[in-house]
Specification:
homodimer, alpha/beta, 434 Repressor (Amino-terminal Domain), Rossmann fold, 3 domains, 6-stranded parallel beta sheet, 14 helices, elongated, DNA-binding
Amino acid sequence: MVTLAEVARHAGVSASTVSYVLSGKRSISAATRERVEQSIRELGYHPNAGARALASSKSNIIALMMPLRTDMYMPVMMEIALAVATTARAHDHDVLLLTGEEGPAAVRRVVGSGLADAMILMDVELDDARLPLLRESERPAVLIGIPADPGGLTCVDLDFTATGALCVEHLAELGHRDIAVVGEAAAVYERHTGFAERTRDGLRARAAELGVRLLHRPCEGSYAAMAGTLSRILDERPDTTAFIVQNEAVIDPLLSLLRQLGKAVPEDVSVVAICPDQVAVQASVRLTSVAIPAHEMGRRAVELVMAKARGEKDDLLDLLPPRLTVRASSGPAPVPR
Amino acid sequence: MVTLAEVARHAGVSASTVSYVLSGKRSISAATRERVEQSIRELGYHPNAGARALASSKSNIIALMMPLRTDMYMPVMMEIALAVATTARAHDHDVLLLTGEEGPAAVRRVVGSGLADAMILMDVELDDARLPLLRESERPAVLIGIPADPGGLTCVDLDFTATGALCVEHLAELGHRDIAVVGEAAAVYERHTGFAERTRDGLRARAAELGVRLLHRPCEGSYAAMAGTLSRILDERPDTTAFIVQNEAVIDPLLSLLRQLGKAVPEDVSVVAICPDQVAVQASVRLTSVAIPAHEMGRRAVELVMAKARGEKDDLLDLLPPRLTVRASSGPAPVPR
DNA sequence: CAGGGTTATCGAAGCGCTTCAACTGGAAGG
DNA sequence: CCTTCCAGTTGAAGCGCTTCGATAACCCTG
């Protein structure tokens, strides 16, 4: 491996000069810079990451902690992760992928060893065991999701409360008075992952305000589960004219089942989904939906954590406003027969 | 941060002794070991990753290069990534997440800087620009997928040729003589990602051997695309009695469309999918399928790359044999009217 | 009990980089 | 013309760890 010292010799300057050319932390004459850069290119020099980390006590690595579960919608997680990785590169950082498996120990390990300069946590639960450690660690950290007590921490998330409200509003405006919500799997609520509960709260609050009847049911991610949930919903509320779906896995099944029941979308029932745009446009009916801005969330998380590392940002709650796109699956409530 | 020197002082031994306790590379008396370990615990010591990497020229990091595309089935990628991460931890390594974005430059950077000890590449194309670099880098590397020339490289993958063959065999045994294959999006074939083409080859070869008529059509991942593809298939081959699907995204749409056409599964048409088991059991009909062993692939990739790092393994092609699980979507070919 | 082999420990020399204090030569200012 | 200043450069001191060779204490064997 080529070292900085060899580059220095090749360029006829001292090691520190090469270092300053690389970091730009001191002024270097154009001629010298050019010569050094030339040597770097010729020798194919790459700074040694370990040496750099040791000398500067900065690793230029961001740790990203992902959930290990499979009951969450993976594509969203994946898209966030990829957005984090590409945005991090734009800031000259790399991403270390941690799974939730190790739990709080992973935080301790990464922070203690100086492996990463900063952390981004996904799938944060309301009362997350990793948070106390994070608070006392003094490392920049950003959560994707919102815990019960976000004090002292920076969080990014879609404003799910507003998302719920927005869905209800849209349908209420179209005249729907009986709305059913197909939620995430029961386990997601039991685990107290905030987003599902916040969505439900937003839905309920708005529904109450607008005088809309709301039925909220969790649903596992399979066709069979959707079939069961649907028949129970229609049993309890035969006058349901609209569905709001928050479990991406059952969107197709729901549309398929409605078709089998002879219910046309949107003429007989309207459907609004909370899902990535891609899913919404690939369904059998182009779905009116509130997008989950996965890419944006990942990007923001990195921007925020970098800003914190530079000491620029205070702790804050970065709630992305939901945007509802009207497509072909929602329409005026049918006239009651 | 607590350093090794402080631990040494606290335990009343030299720094090197602490180091040897940690690494186990020299024998240490039980009494000393105990004392050192006690000090480590009391002080909450964590070895500094950078210093370690510098001194030992091993970072204990595996780089995982993922595709950035969204036309591949993300959950499989994600599951592989998670399996890689957890298996790596079991070998006391961490995972650095790279996206394909940087292309070959990422290989150069990571190898050159000593950031990672080893690499795992996903989504390898037949003629992948990263491979020459990898070969000359002398770092242990494992590909998930198989390039045109795997010489000098270790590869892990599902045996997609055998997978294709297996699907055809199963259906042929059931008496099907006209089989349609719904493949990946056209872009996947054009990019020459080997797996899609290998599957097709396996399908065709076996079909020819068994005297089965095969129609192979690529298909984008949307309901509308599936509808178009299906009608074209049935136009060209009205006698089609079985479908093999390799694009997870259109499994639900296909089943839904068949239902609409009044074709019962498996009485009128059989369906075999190539997809993760989870997808197969969550569909409206429990699908006969060949599983994509994502977790196993990720795990194997790490095991192999670790073995290479220890100098234990030669280059090889680790083809996982496909396993077909018969569920409710395949049955005897209907008697021609 | 001398000689050889183990076992347990230590000291010191780096690993390749960053960064600080110090130095130099020339431009600017009085 | 001498001081002051600053841009440009350097040498040297670490950063916290691993590892090699040396040492000392011990146990065996003949």
